[in-house]
Batch of 3 targets.
Target 1
Amino acid sequence: MMKMQMRPRAEAANRKQEGGRVAVVAGSGMLPRQVVDALLRQGEKPYIVAIEGEAKPSDYAELDIRPVPPARLALMLPELSRLGVDRLVLAGGVATRPPLRQLRFPPAFLLQLPRLIKAYAQGDDGLLRAVIGFIESRGIKVVGAHEIAPDLLAPAGPLGRVRPNRNDLRDIKAAAEAARAIGSLDIGQAAIAVGGRAVALEGIEGTDGLLERMKALRDHGRLAGARGGVLAKCAKPQQDARADLPAIGPQTIVDAAQAGLSGIAVDAERAMVLDMAETIKRADELGLFVLGMRESDN
């Protein structure tokens, strides 16, 4: 994770002083809207680049918005520069990558095309770092969603009324170790442990698919009758914090409960809890713990 020179809240307070306009490239999920709301509170009027098939333009009806197919996002950079955009936030999910042959680029990108081709064959982190490098080569600073909305970052310790017990702590350790192992290979950010051992790892299906798979595993012979378990979500060791930090939200709590888990552990200050009040409320209602963990604790 990149070290920042000032605390996120200080950065947010000083954001308006930088002068230009900010754009939000909005994918799916709750994060883009929460970033937009934070910017509005700071006196900004963001320009929304809504990824077609992911973002809902109706969620941003009061703002300047431009729906763009994923394969043509790079063509937006010259237009953003003409609009006076000097900062850009990448927020939300993108379910699929367009085939490389369908991507369209401005002429200035041709010199960086070999780098993109190499990155396209890597995991999400490798590709996102290449994308960030290209955007910043065009004079637009990429800003992390957590820098705009620092209150989304998970604090250390239990977030709700429910606390993990001794068995849960053992599962947290096993799940976190597994999540960090696959993260170092740029495969995923999450793992599930039951009975002190990892039983399921996140792949390209994401956390939603991982929890759905866990539901089916409950009927597996080696897990039949096993109770509890923990989902851990960890930032990848080499991850650029400005894109794709781990995140959970209210639906993650519901899915974890349906998968029979006892709770969720996320990296403190390196993972986001979307709609935190509602997320904690649901966890308390369903009897799950939510824990902000520090790597030194595991």
Note: The chain is about 35% helix and 20% strand.
Target 2
Amino acid sequence: MELFQRANAVRLRSHHDKYLLADDDEESVCQDRNGSSRSARWTVEFIGGENVLRLKSCYGKYLTASNAPFLLGMTGRKVLQTLPKRLDSSLEWEPIREGFHVKLKTRYGNYLRANGGVPPWRNSVTHDIPHRTATQDWILWEVDIVEIQIESPGQSPQKADSPSSSPAKKNTSGSTSSEMSPRLSKLKSSDSFTHGSPPKNDGRTIYFRIADDYGNVDDAFEEPFFNFKGTSVDELTNKLEEETGLNDLIVCSRHPLNGKLYPLRLHLPPNNTTMHVVVVKSTSKVAKGFAMPENPA
């Protein structure tokens, strides 16, 4: 469960380097390399006091382990998007950490599996127990946190007991919030985080986004921001790691002409200028493409 800590929304990347997507038919799910699509975004709902969670698609429906066979005569069963009147155990997934990855286990012992091979298996997603060594890694998923949640002091986790009356409710700022779990609403205000008007105390305002493995970001959602009084890139990196709950981050800016990411190496802009940054994991594919800084002679 620790890989989902403080997560309000995530992307799940499979062993095949593809993301779990909610199909636009609002019923099925699949895999695709386009991690920047809104369909790759899954809102996390924790179930109070239990090591299980629910994942809600951008269409307001839950990732569901159905009983329907994916293919007749095969063991794999369909994974769907559903919104039942009663939230039952078919919507619940138990995260089991395995190194830097996670396995998502159903209440009945199956695992969320990203299938490979030829059609109709290619890009499909089922729940099953892998019996062959060659497919053991197909149940491993990498978790990319794309939106974090901040709890107010003294606020305790709340259990989501009933489905939303509408799929995903838009607020006046354009961000998405879940009616199911107040604990997981979009980036609640804290001492350093806030939405609305930027803080007016000393320091500079830092707006940031969290990129996926390829450096893509979801521009459909409002940038969170905080007030920063430090002066160096290292201080800013530490602050962003503290606020996001992520480790080994690289702080980047966008090139004004081509929009490509480049890492901040030396100094921050002078005069407490407001900054818009993008953070990526140091182990990401986009980070591997950054040129290494030259060592002084």
Note: The longest strand covers residues 7-14.
Target 3
Amino acid sequence: MENNPSRNKENSLSNSEDMQEHENDHPDADEEWDFESEEEEDDGGSSASRRKWIRNTIIFLLVAALAVNIVAFLPQIYNMKTLPLLFKSKELSSQAEIQGYKEAVVTVSTDNGKGTGFHINGGYIVTNYHVIEDNGYIVVKFPEQSQIYKAELSVSDPDLDIAILKADIGDQRLPFIEVERDNKQWEPDEQIYVIGNPLHFTQIAIEGTIIGLVPIQGRQTSVMALDAPIYNGNSGSPVMNKRGKAIAVVFATADVGHQDQMIEAGLAVPIADMETLLRTLLPPVE
């Protein structure tokens, strides 16, 4: 059989045209890859959107939980019991002498909580023994001082529930409250002031009156009963007379009969009962 170059050429052209026709049958072949790339890009964008939504949702839930806790906690701080206390303290603190007394009333902090104390000069801080009992450390903070001072027990009388600390204040001269060491320190119905750190607050000033001495089971000496709003955290607060001298130290509360009814009274250790301790630290009374 003869080889026909013309026919072969025609066949070759025909095959070439067929291939071109097949290629033309799929004009978007190259664009399919671009479409898949766009899909991948869309998937990446969706993932980023999901992550952003999850993050925002978590933040919203955390903020909402915090807001709920704050709203739930606020009534424990500001309520019908504490609001009158705060308003009265603000009123009393507008008096220059009360503001001066407050500068000598400190916060006594330990690894088990906090209480109140007051500076009687030379870095000596009077507080309750139960405030600092069995604690790993003791620090005190004066209201007008940014520094926190380390303190150590100087002398104490656990039976009286009285402790006197020595704060490491160096040679600083810090505000102090003078103690009333005269034999006749107070009288029933006398008006008094108490400054302390009750509940969740600090530097709260209150006023009241002295009911008198009352016996307490388990104590050898009677204690001073006060008709005044005393709360947790007031332990170690000074009871001061109108002359601004400390006449007793708050240590507890109890139901006491007063004016033909039972009231929750504050209980305080008279300064006279602490004379033995004070004599070791302060100059004798002239």
Note: The domain at 191-279 is CATH 2.40.10.10 (Thrombin, subunit H).
